[in-house]
Amino acid sequence: MSNLLDLLVAGLATGAIYALVAVGFTLLWQTSQTINFAQGEFVMLPAFLMLATMHAGAPFWLAIIIGILLSMILLGLGFKMLLVDPMLRHGVLPLAIATMALAIGIKEAVKQFFSAEASPFPSIVPTNEISVFGHDISLQSLGVFVVAILAVVGLTALLNRTSLGHQMQAAAQNPTVARIIGVPVERMILLTFLINAVLVALASLLITPIYLAKFSSGEVLGQAAFIAAIVGGFNQVRGAIAGGLLIGVLDNLSAAYVSTQYRAAVPLIVLIVVILFRPQGLMGRSEERTV
Amino acid sequence: MSANARYLRLATGLVAIAALMVIPMNFNRYGLFILSQWAVMTIAAMGLNLTLGYAGQVSLAQGAFVGVGAYASAILTTHGWPLPAALGVSILASFIVGWLLGYPALRVQHHYLAFVTLAFSTLAFLVFRNESWLTGGIYGISNIPRPHIFGFATNKPLPFYYLCLGSLGLVSLAVWWLIRSPWGRAFMALRENPLRAQSLGVDTRRYTLMAFAIGSALGGVAGGLYAPLTQYIDPVPFNLSLSLDLLMMVIVGGSGFFFGPFLGAMIAVLLPEWLRFTQGYYLMLYAIAVILLLIWSPTGILGILDRFLANRRTRVASALRAVTKSRLETVQ
Prior knowledge:
heterodimer, A: mainly alpha, two-stranded antiparallel sheet, 2 strands, B: mainly alpha, two-stranded antiparallel ribbon, 77% helix
């Protein structure tokens, strides 16, 4: 039983991180039809930006701030202006391919300019264990879960409760009409890219202490977030949250109860089944077919 | 097209084939390996071009089909089968797997199809890695023999390169014929306007499935040649990144253009080698080059050529019109 509880807590913690990344992923898709195959690398990079800042002598808290700012500039503003804007009008596929190339570029750049080895990364939450009803529960998992969920709840509140959030949703759902009623659509789209950059930086901050900072760690993470986004519903923020938690828990449980060899297969099979029987995702709305 | 242009094209083609046969004669082992790899990857990319460029179905599983073909060929040839027979099984296996995947997957389209095939690709990798009774697991299959073709041993790099080049030639002819057949036209109709194709009596479901399975089978051909080329296979080369690479080849070369995969595979296989003098930076430069190319021309390299030719044709036509017009005016 205690084993199951541990697995659930650990699963929810990684799931919450997947949810962060998946939410960013769906935001980019909604506002600018960008399928970002480099999303995993986007999570890997900020940890290295923070490490580099710390190597330059900055304390951890300052490194976090600088890391988030740098990631907003590079992965938010830079990504939008240099890659998405020039390519968007040419359709979904060339842009998706360009993000694949970007993923290779980021990986190689980190390997070349930083290190090909895994580096340890300090944790922002305590790493010891606490006792709850006689069970030892990892405080790190709990902390990660709480921070990630707070971020997601904050973002959802921003999107659903504020005028800014409503404008962003309008810009995503129907840019033409949004423009007519005076929503600054361009600025809203830029804002989603910045939000995505903050989300991946936060995810990076939370997950890197668990899995170490390595140039190749984005591959697995990117794919998990990708699956989470689709399973939950590609066009819904709440779908991405549910999908992330579900995939995180499934991943951990199947490693223990199915087989360690095929642990990665379980989320994939769920993905295939969901797409075949409910292509809009568990919580998504269906997209109208355009003729 | 005028007769002159046709001869020019034919001559360019013949020169290219002759160059591919003659120039590598004094290449070293590694150079020949890279060129053979180019031929093999071109075959796989041609299959994907058929699925994506002509029939408009985004597949992220082509690498897995190359894997299916490679394992079929490796397992059978190490058990003493001749390569042509093993290649036949490779083609059949990947065709059937493609059909079985396509049957449920083609219920969904566009990016959903991409996601299903992506999941399949990773599942196939897990099977290659975990079913060690069949695939040798992480240790892979080694000592894959190279075949004797019509009594010629292809153990040396040069004869094996010719085998790859010959196979590429055969596959090219087959694809060339296919896209000009009624089937090929049906494929293109699917890409351009599926609803309209359906209303004209094209059985869309069957043709999409066919395009997908034939594309997969070509992946199998590539895999069947890849195994004896490297003489050792393990699951790593057939993971998702191969599928992504192949997709990149098709888009970079120019999806929907017959010669797109040739150029795309050249960029993906040869460009990193040419950039090797930059040492650790070569893959970074390669990624930047691909991004810049796609920003400049999202329809790939052949898209640039296509636009250039279209422009010239318009210019020639308007020049002709101007001349005729002025002539008509002087007559009056």
